Amino acid sequence: MKKYLITIITSLFIISGAVALAVDSKTINVANVTSEFTNDNTGLGTNVFSAIAGGVSSVAIGVNALDAATTANYNVAIGHNALTTTTTGGSNIGIGYQALQLHTTGTDNTVVGHNAGSLITEGVNNVIIGSGSMTSLTTQGYSTAVGYQALAVTTGANNVGIGASVGGTLTSGTNNVLIGYAADTGSSDLTNATAIGYSAIVSGSNSLVLGATGANQPNVGIGTTTPWRTFSATGTVAFPNLTPATASGAAVCVGADGELVVNLGVNTCLVSSLRFKHDIK
After folding, report:
1. What is the reported pTM?
2. Are residues 65 and 84 in contact, defined by beta-carbon separation less than 8 angstroms?
3. Residues with Cβ < 8 Å from 33, sequence gap 6 or more?
4. What pLDDT does 248 receive?
């Protein structure tokens, strides 16, 4: 049982610019508290740095924080069980209850949030911010998850998920970008897929989806702040390499209101008129 002298400021008085403090000193018994200030390490909490053997310049605050670290350098662990199994991995930041709890040798991870990144062991260069974010990832790296329970990835790498509950289906896919509340993939193993917007779902690799479907389907605008159709553009639009939809061809025409229409079976947008016809019977 350790005893610490705690100085408590009980009153503060300001008289004519002078400050007067009423101080009350008390001795408080605190059990099982460890402090560590060697090799430029700073620790406070039960079992912090219990196994340290050469590691330098780390900070551990909280029960069991960095308690297995041996030669690990330049880590910051703040919270109960934060980086509790880290042995040699360096340059990691884990802030929050059980943040990076099972981490061992991975490097350069930044994790903030309750239980965030709790299963990562050897993953590297991940950025995880949000309670319950990326809790299934183990060894892969270079992913970014920001938001409550963002990204359910287990083995996929190089993914970006921004928004609460984003990427709940994605587990083994790589190089995907999901932005917006509940934005997700249609299957677990897509590659190079992007979904942007509330509840946007992308179901094919090498594809990009803007917005949700059905009642939540948005209008997309380029060069305008008030898109009035599914896709509205102010400016020039080009469609190179188009092929006719039918053997007899088709014409894409612009209506008076600026809407595109297709005239199937004809190669002109001219309106039928008696002015252009002769000998009609």
Report:
1. 0.79
2. yes
3. 2, 4, 44, 45, 46
4. 64
